[in-house]
Amino acid sequence: MEFSEKFLYHIWDAQHLKDNLQTISRKTIKILYPGRWNTDAGADFKDAILEIDGEVQRGDVEIELRSYNWHLHEHHENPGFNSVLLQVVFEHDGQYPYNFTENGEKIEILQVSEQLDADIKKLIKKYSGKDFKAKNKECNLFKNITDEKLIDKISVLGMERFEKKIKRFSAEHFFADFDQLIYQGLFESLGYSKNKFQMLQIALKLPFKLLKEFHLKGMTYDDLISIYLVSSGLSTHLSSSFPTELKTKWQENFGKQEFIQDGFDPGWKLFRIRPANHPAIRIIQISQIIYDSLETSLFNRIMKLFSYSSDKFTLTNFRKNLYVFFSQAPVFLPERYNLGKIRLDTILINIILPLAVIYSREKGYAELEETVFNIYSSYPGLTGNYITNFMEKYLTDSQRKLPKKAVFQQGIIKLYYDNCQFHDCENCI
Questions:
Q1: Integer CA distances (angstroms), 351 to 207, 299, 356, 357, in order
Q2: CB neighbourhood size of 236 (10 A)
Q3: Highest-pLDDT range among 37-41, 238-242, 245-249
Q4: Which of 46, 228, 232, 337 is the residue whose CA sits 20 to 30 A from 265?
Q5: Residue 95 near residue 202, CB atoms below 8 Å
Q6: Contact 127, 40 (CB under 8 A)
Q7: Tens-digit pLDDT profile for residues 247-293
Q8: Which residues, at least 6 apart from 368, have a Cβ–Cβ distance to it below 8 Å?
C-alpha cells in the first residue's frame, strides 16, 4: 500500500492511530493535541501538545514519508525546525533512533506504518485527491548595505553556522566514535545527491570497527573491495567498459572470504549518473585509504593533515596535502576517476573541520582549534548550490565581485534559512 505525504497529514490531523503508541526509541507517547496544520514555512503542524514518557511538552510536528528525509530536506540545517518535538514517518530508515535539530537537540521519531487504525482504506479513498500546496518563497535582499558591512555581517553568520555544525556532530558523537563519524561522512558525501542515503547504509552495515576486526582476522585489500561491491550489489552495476576480469575476480573472492556472507540492497539510483560519480567507482577510489587506516585510525590519519604550528600554517600547503592524501587510489583505477577538488573541499568544510574542532576541544588542543578556524575563515568558496545561486540573484554588481570564501557562502545559506525563506525582510541585514 503506497502512502503520500499529504495523506499522512490527514492521518495525523484526524489521529487515525492505535492506542499505546511508541517512538522508535521505545518511549511511550500520547497525543493530547496534534497541533494546527501549517500552510506557511516551517514544520507541518504547529503547537502540538504531546506526552512523551509521562512528560507533557508543547512543540511542532514534522510529517515525512521516511525519517531520512529530515536530512534530505535539510531540516537539520534549518533553525525554523528547532521547535520540532516529533517527526512522524511512515517508515523509519535513518541511522539513529532520533533525528537532530539545527541546534543539536534530539527529536523523537514516530513510525506509523504498524500503528494505523482499521479505517485506513477509507481514508485513502477519501483524501487521495486532496491537494496540499507549499507556499512560494521569495526574498528581496542586499539593496541598502555597503560591501564592507555585508562582508562583516555575513562572515559572522558563517561562523555561527559552523558552530551549529559542530554542535550537531557533537550530538552524533554520543552514538559513534570519531572513526565511524568520519567514515560515515565520507561515504554519505560520496553518494552525491542521488545516493547519499544508499552510501550511508554501507557505512552502517559495514562499520569501521567491524572492518578493523576483519582486518585482524586476515582480511586483504581485495577482500575489502569484494565485500563492499558484491554484498551491496554494486559489482553487477559496473559499466561494460570496466575490466571483466576485475568484476569476475571480486565475485569469486567474495565467495571465498569468510567475513560476511549476506548481502543487502540499499536501493541504488544509477540512472543517468556520471561515470565518475558512480558509487562503485567512489567506493573503489576511497577503499585504499580505508584499508590503509584499519591498522591505526582513519580519523587520526586525517588529523595529521593539521600538523602545523599556527605560526607556520599556510592554506596552500594544507590544501595540497589534503588533495594528495585523498588521491590514494588503486593502480587499476584511471586517474580521471580520482576524487575531484570540488568534492574534497565540500567534505572538508562540512565534515572534517567540524569534527576536528570537536576533537580539539575534547582533548584540549587549543592550537589545533585555532588552525581549524584559520582554515575555515580563509578557505576559498565552494561550488554554488541552489540556495547560494538563488541568493546571488539579489546581490548588487559590486557584491557579486567580492572575494568568494567558504565562510561567506555558509553565512549566505544561514541568512536564507533564518530570514529569506520566511520572507522576514524586516529583521534581515
A1: 17, 11, 9, 10
A2: 11
A3: 245-249
A4: 337
A5: no
A6: no
A7: 999 999 999 999 998 899 999 999 888 888 899 999 999 999 999 99
A8: 303, 306, 356, 359, 360
Neighbouring residues of 85: CB distance < 8 A, sequence distance ≥ 6: 48, 50, 52, 57, 58, 59, 60, 61, 107, 108
Grid cell in block for residue 365: 588542543
Q: CA 328 to CA 318: how far, in whole Å?
A: 16
Q: What count of residues does the chain have?
A: 429
pLDDT band at 35 (very low <50, low <70, confident <90, very high): confident
| pTM, two decimal places | 0.78
Packing angle between helix 208-216 and helix 279-292, nearest 10 degrees?
Answer: 60
Fill in the amino acid letter for 425: C
**Residues in contact with 154: Cβ distance below 8 Å, sequence separation at least 6, in sequence order:** 408, 411, 412, 415, 429
The distance of Cα 392 from the centroid of its chain, to the nearest Å, equals 24
Distance between CA atoms of 284 and 200, rounded to whole angstroms? 15
429 confidence band (pLDDT: 50, 70, 90): low
Task: Give the three cell numbers for residue 322.
Answer: 589534503
User: Which residues, 6 or more positions from 333, have their beta carbon under 8 angstroms from its beta carbon?
Assistant: 281, 284, 285
- The angle subtended at Cα 173 by Cα 277 and Cα 89, nearest 5°, is 70
Is residue 88 exposed (0-12), middle (13-18) or buried (19+ Cβ within 10 Å)? buried
